[in-house]
Specification:
The protein is of the alpha+beta class and 159 residues long. It contains three helices and seven strands. The N and C termini lie far apart (38 Å).
């Protein structure tokens, strides 16, 4: 199976995320979204402004969501494509976050660098946000913070 890129509107990307993402809700905004597929849409990536307050929103692009139906290589495809597109668009860096318990294999496969975040990192969390979810017996609702994160970084080489 050979995946090819598709231009995807945010509404279509969000519908795919709602069906296929393990723990996040759809996004409310984006800079652009990308899909891949063969005969049908097999995955989407939503890229936008960084959510952390301390990150330069003009110089850094964040991969906000990646969701696939399990198509082999689709996640790595999205992270590599985001890096290429961000370079062409003049961004200095691209970031994304995974849960600490996730392997990050798709990111490692295309050369992104991990940076483990402290659970109370001031760029990620602040007093008014309410902090991390307490560990309870019930799983948190979709879209809730699920614990410590790892920030992944790609430097574009643009200065």
């Amino acid at each position: 199976m050979s995946l090819r890129p598709w231009r995807v509107e945010l509404a279509d990307a969000n519908a795919f995320v709602e069906l296929h993402h393990r723990h996040h809700k759809p996004e409310v905004g984006h800079r652009w979204s990308l899909g891949v597929g063969d005969e049908v849409l097999r995955g989407v990536a939503i890229c936008g402004r960084p959510k952390a307050r301390g990150i330069d929103k003009r110089a850094v692009l964040e991969v906000l969501r990646v969701a696939t139906d399990g198509a082999r290589g689709a996640c790595s495809y999205f992270y590599a494509a985001a890096a290429r597109i961000a370079t062409v668009q003049g961004f200095r860096a691209v970031i994304t976050y995974t849960l600490q318990k996730e392997s990050g294999a798709s990111l490692r496969a295309v050369g992104w660098w991990p940076h483990e975040l402290d659970e109370r990192d001031p760029e990620w969390d602040f007093e008014g946000r309410g902090g991390q979810l307490a560990l309870i017996d019930l799983p948190p609702p979709k879209g809730q913070d699920l614990g410590p994160k790892i920030r992944w970084l790609w430097l574009t080489g643009n200065d």
